[in-house]
Write a structure and sequence with these properties.
Strand content: 5-15%
Shape: globular
CATH superfamily: Intergrase catalytic core
Order of helices and strands: HHHEEEHHH
Largest sheet: 3 strands, antiparallel
Number of helices: 6
Distance between the termini: 30 Å
CATH class: Mainly Alpha
Strand order of the largest sheet: 1-2-3
Number of strands: 3
Helix content: 40-55%
Radius of gyration: 15 Å
Number of domains: 1
CATH architecture: Orthogonal Bundle
Length: 129
């Protein structure tokens, strides 16, 4: 479902990448859309975020997140992993894409922040089992 809009060329490729990273990292939306390539350390499998809501932090990346980031086509001279439509700017608003994706999936009332909660719930369940 994430690939449909991108393959139909009606969605920005970065939007589906952002959703995947939200699901696979547990990061906040603002952290994901503002990731710069200089923050990505694939050889160490981490994101080094200099300014999150709680200050600087290191986010451990699982293999799936590493694969998503490794597969992102870099925009020449663009510092952001999730480029927006304006030169040098990151994607500024994921909500329109999220609403269209939810509609396609038949999910009426699922806030984008629920991906962070889902990530946390899966992580807790994995740690217990």
């Amino acid at each position: 479902m994430l690939n449909e809009g991108q393959s139909e060329r009606v969605e920005l490729p970065g939007a589906s990448t952002a959703v995947r990273l939200l699901l696979l990292t547990g990061c906040r939306l603002n952290e994901i859309v503002k990731i710069r390539w200089e923050h990505v350390c694939l050889d160490e499998t981490v994101l080094r975020l200099p300014d999150s809501r709680t200050g600087a932090k290191v986010v451990q990346l699982g293999q799936a997140a590493v694969e998503v980031l490794a597969g992102v086509e870099r925009t020449p001279f663009h510092p952001h992993v999730i480029p927006g439509t304006l030169p040098g700017q990151s994607l500024s608003d994921l909500q329109p894409f999220w609403c269209r994706l939810r509609a396609r999936a038949g999910l009426k009332d699922v806030p984008i922040h629920d991906m962070r909660h889902t990530y946390a719930a899966v992580a807790v369940a994995s740690a217990r089992g």
